[in-house]
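Record type: monomer structure entry
Structure origin: computed from sequence
Chain ID: A
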Amino acid sequence: MANQNDSFIDEVTEDLRRDRLFALFRRYGWIALLVILGIVGGAAWREWSRNQADTRAESWGDALTAAREAEDPVAALSAVDPAGSAGRKALSEMLAAEAEVQAGLPQKAAARLKAVAETLRDDPVLHDLALLKAVMAAGSGMDVAERDRLLADLSKPGAPFELLALEQKAVALIGAGRKDDAVMLIRQIQKKDGLSESLRLRLSEMMITLGAEPRDDGGAGPQSLPPDMPAPAAD
């Protein structure tokens, strides 16, 4: 008899639980449905947005390629739609400056690159890249004080293009006829970590051109830099 009573109580309890579950579902089930729809909809939106971004990037890349092959690449590159991206606009302008250099307009290219850098103060990598390209484009035609100021900032320890800026300092010293100072600076650069193989090769070629040993033997220890050139960071 006890077993039958227990069985009856269990059945009643189960029915009550089922009734409560159905009641809760009827009252709050729409919330669960909204959550599920939100998750599915969010995933679909993310996928669509990613596909749209990829499509815009591909279109922008195709437009850049076509612009570089145009009859007037400077105008064509400047007109490429960056699709709302400041970084893309800056890269288009850098390519336009490159076309100006190839067309024999280095000072105009340098002015364009400095203007680009002004728009990129929140992006230190592209900002420094634009300024470094400006220095390289203008070459000896840039005001000496301005060039030295820019290279001093670009070659600060930890700057994105520190080593390349130091290389440009060496190039400037060579252009000024300061052979010994250039050799001293190149040896300092050669002792730094992070040199790419192409930069090592260029530095060695400069040393050979200057009539010095292409590589520092490391036996003499660090040498002091020319007095008017900011010292690069020690290794």
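Annotation 1: Residues 56-142 form one domain.
Annotation 2: Residues 150 and 224 are 21 Å apart (CA to CA).
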